[in-house]
Amino acid sequence: MSVSDLIATFILALLLLQAAVRLPGALRGRRRSRSLSGAFIAFAIAWWLRTGLGRTAVDPLGINDLPTLLKHVLAIAGICVLLMYVCDVYAEEDASARHIRISALVQRVTAYASVATVVCMTAVFFLVLDRSRTDKDSPYFIGRHMGDPGLALYMGLFYAYVVAAALVCAYQWGRAARRPSHWALRVGLTMMATGMTLIVVYAVMRTVFLSVATAHPLPARDLADQEHVTDTVLYAGFLLWLLGSIVPAIRALLTRASSIRAIVRLHPLWRDLALAVDGIALYQPANLLRGHRAAAPLSTLRDVLSHDATPQIRLGRYITEIRDATHELRRRAPADLYERAVHFAETKGHRGPEAAATAEAYWLKAALPAARQPAGTPTAFRTAGDDFGTEVSWLMQVSRAYRRTDLTPVPLPDTAK
Questions:
Q1: What is the pTM of this model?
Q2: In whole angstroms, what is the distance from residue 125 CA to residue 127 CA?
């Protein structure tokens, strides 16, 4: 495998990864996720057609240079969808702003121009371009058609489209990169804007070279040097754009993973409270195979991964329902239960925040049998967590202590009133 094929395969893998990450949102009908997935898939196939394997798969159709035409058509389709996505996102900021109106105009023109460009390029490809030459004459598309006026027309249409679209994307992402508070988004947008700028440079360099080569055909060595230089710029630009688009996705992926980890740790506590206190859970805990022990992992997996749109929303629901259940238990638990739980935690050698988390876990487990008792005035209770982040961290400590708690030998009072 050549170096260029290796780089193209790496880019192809990253594009497919991006499409896969957005696939769940696309399947749920999210228009933007669907648009981005489509753009990444179009780009992925276009890059595959740059490889020897892609060209070999299409060559049996018997049409010389067909992989090149398909590659360019798919690139235009991907750019068009990407540009529509970019303009759609930033139009929400202030549709009346001049830069938004200009970008929207370019986007509308580009959407129509994409169809016109594809039609014109296809017509030039089949009717004007001399395709009698093959790979044996030159391994490069430009080399095979150097001096052919059809080449300048064909490539000129393609590069004009690329430059217009890439300039809009570079401008919008560069402007947006100055505002984000999160470093990941700022770095990602900067990389994407730089990548698109390099793609503009690539298209301009190729256009200049094409103009010179059309008027004065160049030797094979100069052609190879040009291909090497411009391909390097293209690889750098596309990788910068692609990696820049992955940086915010990685941050989002890490956030999702952190939320799922917190949900898994909170699940035993949430499940017991949701089963004990009626009406606090939006979705009751799963009870597959009627609660058989062998199905417990599957029930847990269903609770952790289902119902809500995102893990972050599910985590927020768990926190709310745990606190709602705690409030209901406070209205039913013995008045001195919390003081006894604190004393018991201290006798077990716990100190500081660990003792407070352990006492809350003891209180919750001891108060559960009183969940069916008549409600009264809330009893004394102390907990930590002033905001969502600290609340999650605190309840994870409580849940860990709850899983380790065994009240069998504990001299806590009868929870019945």
A1: 0.71
A2: 6
